[in-house]
From TrEMBL, chain A:
UniProt GO MF annotations: structural constituent of ribosome
Subcellular location: Mitochondrion
Keyword Ribonucleoprotein found: yes
Pfam family for this entry, one: DAP3
Native species: Melipona bicolor
Protein name: Small ribosomal subunit protein mS29
InterPro entries found in the cross-reference section: P-loop_NTPase (IPR027417), Ribosomal_mS29 (IPR019368), Ribosomal_mS29_met (IPR008092)
GO biological process, one term: apoptotic process
From TrEMBL, chain B:
Organism: Melipona bicolor
Keyword Ribosomal protein: yes
Source superkingdom: Eukaryota
Gene Ontology cellular component list: ribonucleoprotein complex; ribosome
Name by which UniProt lists this protein: Small ribosomal subunit protein uS7 domain-containing protein
Domain Small ribosomal subunit protein uS7: 70-220
Alphabetical UniProt keywords: Ribonucleoprotein, Ribosomal protein
GO-annotated biological processes: translation
The family this protein is said to belong to: Belongs to the universal ribosomal protein uS7 family.
Length: 385, 228
């Protein structure tokens, strides 16, 4: 049965799917005004091995849409520096090169970013989101899963599935964010629902309605926001399988879904496992192998779960259940800065007037104190000038 | 460890205060031990003046303290200020507050930098350390009032003070004024505001200094009680 569906999928996809090939386009002569640590290129698809250890700037309109869901420190940095500059690093360039070469008729590939805390996993994701937006993917970006489970504003029993718990407020917020970052994709791709969704006796979403209407309904009707997320992911999976669009699932802190406990309480005031929260099954199904024309980029982090804190490696952090769900996946390590990257980032801080007079000895000291860890370096540079 | 703490808290303090018995604690090191010179540039300066070096060459040296470091980020005045912020020996917290303060100063100044037209930008000082030094210097008072009783009446007599005391007052005023705000705002935020204001010769700390000077001026008539 499985092989039959798979062959059906591939036949469907072959008709429309085109494999993109990297063209070795000749680079323009670099501007003399641009300092050595920057690149004038702002299209992430064009960034390749030559651009490593240099900084590229994300355009301000995309920064504005991403701003609300970036980490606190990154948001602060963007406000202070008046731009969002990201160091081009190996993991993101590697994933982009894989995405360019992927055979999209096959079932989706899963990439897992892992690494120690503060190594730049979330920041690497920003570049991939930008890539997705530029390449007209439908980007399902879930920023830091733990915010749903750790600080639940309101947990209510789901009206659609009585044994599960909904988090309507976070869900509405997320739908707004998804609408914001996929503004262009939603208007251009013309995606339609394929089946009828009955929310209550009066509220029905008919088949053939556009996805933006579905999202709008979720934002308006707070109560069914989680159900809308479920429907949206299903529809996107179906649309991608039918080669109408391509979907990029980006989830930060994926191992929160496979953890054993959350901070959400049920009606008996007991903590519930993530399986009992309605969005968990949705997003677990979004990384399943049964669809194509997409990719899933996930990160695993020690901070994202409560019970596993001993190692940074994905096999341990995902647990047996998560590993079996995701297998096979491609683990990609995000490491601390190399020496060149370290120098570049200090130069960038100097350019943005964050630090100024630090001698070579001081740089050496910073290097040793921070162990070239991006977050540590940022924290150490805060009081200095 | 328990006994040691008990000794420090109960016995040691009483011993130190009890000067009538003429019992006093001395340093572990005799007075001929010189203080260590831990800054690298100071050491190099020492090598250039050979006479001083000869003086030090055969004298024993005290071991360096834990907060003495040759790092270029170390600064004597900032170290002192950290100690004044510190409460109950929580130096980690004090250092964190000061780091956040400097960060806030930088952010505020950078905002100011980007909001001014490009031709005036060069005049803006972005270095928090320079701003801090300026603030401390601006807040330093010259005179203070001391209560002296003559003929059964206590007079507020203006007297000059030494540099250390003046510096301490200026730094302590900055901290106290920032703490006055209460818990509504973070200390690091208020401290940043106060320091920036003081560096511009404005704000509440500067006002406090001027008030003190005014009072000293008013009590000028009692000045001779200092020596009479």
């Amino acid at each position: 049965m499985m092989s039959y569906t798979y062959s059906l999928f591939s036949r469907m996809c072959l008709r429309n799917g085109r494999r993109t090939i990297i063209t070795a386009a000749t680079k323009d002569v670099p501007d003399t005004n641009i300092p050595w640590f920057r690149i004038s290129e702002s299209n992430p698809a064009e960034l390749d091995e030559n651009c490593l250890t240099r900084i590229y700037t994300i355009p301000s309109d995309i920064t504005a849409s991403l701003m609300s869901n970036m980490t606190l420190e990154l948001r602060k940095q963007t406000e202070v520096f008046r731009e969002l500059g990201i160091l081009v690093r190996r993991p993101s360039v590697e994933i982009i090169s894989y995405l360019e070469q992927t055979d999209f008729t096959k079932s989706i590939n899963k990439y897992i970013l892992y690494g120690i805390q503060g190594a730049g996993k979330t920041t690497s994701l920003l570049q991939l989101i930008h890539y997705g937006i530029v390449k007209r993917y439908f980007v399902l970006h879930l920023p830091w899963v733990q915010t749903w489970f750790r600080y639940p504003r309101d947990a209510v029993v789901s009206p659609l599935e009585p044994d599960k718990i909904d988090l309507p407020e976070s869900a509405t917020k997320w739908l707004k964010y998804i609408k914001e970052i996929n503004k262009v994709a939603l208007s251009q791709l013309d995606l339609k629902t394929t089946k009828e969704y009955t929310w209550s006796q009066r509220e029905i979403t008919k088949s053939g309605e556009s996805l933006s209407n579905l999202i709008e309904f979720g934002i308006q009707r707070n109560k069914f926001a989680c159900g809308v997320i479920n429907a949206l992911v299903d529809e996107l999976k179906m649309a991608s399988t039918a080669a109408k669009c391509r979907t990029l699932v980006i989830i930060d802190g994926f191992n929160a879904f496979t953890s054993s406990i959350t901070h959400v309480k049920d009606e008996n005031h007991a903590y519930v496992p993530p399986e009992r929260i309605s969005i968990t099954s949705t997003f677990l199904s979004s990384v399943d192998y049964n669809w194509c024309n997409g990719a899933a980029i996930l990160t695993v982090d020690k901070k994202a779960n409560k019970d596993r804190k001993d190692s940074d490696y994905p096999t341990y952090l995902l647990g047996k259940k998560g590993f079996e769900l995701l297998d096979p996946f491609l683990p990609i390590c995000v490491e601390n800065y190399s020496l060149d990257e370290f120098k570049t980032i200090l130069e960038y801080y100097k350019d943005r007037k964050w630090i100024k007079n630090i001698s070579d000895k001081g740089q050496r000291e910073l290097e040793l104190l921070s162990n070239k860890n991006p977050y540590q370096l940022w924290a150490l540079c805060k009081p200095l000038y | 460890m328990f006994i040691g703490r008990k000794f420090n808290s109960l016995i040691l303090s009483s011993l130190r205060c009890n000067l009538e018995n003429s019992f006093q604690f001395y340093s572990v090191f005799p007075p001929n031990y010189i203080k260590p010179i831990y800054k690298k540039d100071e050491q190099e300066a020492l090598y250039q003046e050979e006479t001083e070096l000869k003086q030090f060459s055969h004298s024993p040296v005290q071991p360096a303290k834990t907060n003495n470091t040759c790092s270029e980020f170390h600064d004597e005045l900032i170290r002192k200020f950290t100690n004044y912020i510190m409460r109950k020996g929580d130096k980690k917290m004090a250092r964190k507050i000061l780091d956040e303060t400097f960060e806030n100063i930088k952010i505020k100044k950078l905002n100011e930098y980007y909001n001014t037209p490009p031709e005036y930008r060069e005049n803006i000082i972005l270095d928090p350390k320079v701003i801090f030094y300026q603030a401390v210097e601006n807040c330093t008072p010259v005179l203070e009032l001391q209560k002296i009783s003559r003929g059964g009446i206590a007079y507020q007599v203006p007297i000059p003070m030494n540099e250390n005391r003046a510096q301490f007052l200026s730094m302590n005023w900055i901290i106290r004024t920032a703490q006055n705000k209460g818990n509504a705002e973070k200390l690091s935020d208020v401290l940043a505001k106060e320091i920036i204001d003081a560096a511009k010769n404005q704000g509440r700390v500067i006002k406090k200094k001027y008030d003190l000077h005014k009072q000293c001026e008013a009590n000028r008539a009692y000045a001779h009680y200092r020596w009479l």
